[in-house]
Amino acid sequence: MPLSASAFIRACREGGQLIENWLRRYDREHGAALYRDAAVALRSWQAAEDVVQESLIKVWQRCATFRGPGDPHAWVRQIVRNTLLDRLRVRRPETSLQADDGDLVPEAAAAVAALSLASDTGPEAEIKARQSEQTFRQCFAQFHAAHPQHATVLRWVAEDGLDNVEVEQLLGRTPGATREFLSQCRKKAKPFFAPWYALVKSGVGHD
Amino acid sequence: MTDEHSDDDWLALIAGRARPDADAATRAEATALRTAFLSYRPHAPEGQVSAADKRLDRLLHRGRDAGVLSAAKPDWRARLRSGWQRPQGLALAFSVVLGAGLLVMRPTTQLPPPAAQERSASASQRITAADPARRQLELLQALRGAGLDAQPYERLGRLGLDVALPPTLSDAQRQVLAAQGLTPPAGPVLAIEILAAPGP
């Protein structure tokens, strides 16, 4: 059974074995990428499996609302990401790294400063490139720990080239609320990525 | 340039879209961030997703619980291969034949009203009837008459119907289902099994 729009619509109409066949094939072709994406966001394979499967059930509960004619994969992936964001929304970081005004709390700021100093010491390009990668990963991990939803959406914007409308659909918010969310992404990301900005380009990210 | 415009430029540049009018600082910051996001994709956590067959089993099980998939078909080959179950199976078959025979021999002028024995939110619902074949036909006509896509089936001598439900049921369709002793499931598929009523 192909994963085309027509096969999807037929399975939706006839149900039963056709849906089961579709799920088997979809898991084989797209499962690995979906589970990985969810595991990166949730930092847990078990939670990722739960979210992806919950989403695939939703897909068939809402299958009649699919509007082709394109590949239903994009539509399915949007439902998975929607569910993922819902899950991230209810998660709270164990310890807040930011104060109410958006600045890092002193402990986090000290850790970031230490990271920045350590990163500045590499004299050679190769070392600097490795430091850049390491620093970026650490900055992103801290950003993700503090603001999982914003970090995940920002990563999707970069990786998939999402525009405002697509983010709006993912978040299920109004255009104004989406714009505010994206503005908050930038504001919240800034202190976390500051040491990395400093490392890759002097002046970038600083006011 | 307003913050709002600057944020739009920042986001567009991170997404890889051209923003020729973006200011230099925003451009440098967003371009560097985009390059890093694409170059240093976050590592997945330790471990891995479950084996394909196990996660598919779980997924299909959840699908059945949610009413998206029909109930699993009984594996009759495995049952027949299992020696200790054979007498039970034969006894069951004998009981069904005996019950059906008694019902046929019983002089009845009116079909007893159907009684729903099990109702649940899951997709598979069972109803009992003295004459399953006749009940199946009645159900088929009633459901199709209400515009529902109902398909009759016979599995292992057991009759039933698979019904594909639209995302939103009309009031008339709900009334027809209720009149037949059926509860609309959460999912798009309703599987109905018709069991022979036990003899008197």
Describe the 3D structure.
The complex is a heterodimer of chains A (207) and B (200). By secondary structure, chain A is mostly helical. Chain A has helices spanning 5-14, 17-42, 45-61, 72-90, 106-119, 125-146, 148-160, 164-171, 175-200. In chain A, helix 2 crosses helix 4 (72-90) and helix 3 (45-61) packs across helix 4 (72-90). In chain B, helix 1 (3-14) packs parallel to helix 2 (24-39). Classes of the chains: A mainly alpha (207), B alpha+beta (200). The interface between A and B is large, with 63 and 53 residues.
Brief descriptors of the model:
heterodimer, A: 207 residues, mainly alpha, Rna Polymerase Sigma Factor, Chain: A, Arc Repressor Mutant, subunit A, 2 domains, 0% strand, elongated, disordered C terminus, B: 200 residues, alpha+beta, five-stranded mixed sheet, 7 helices, 16% strand
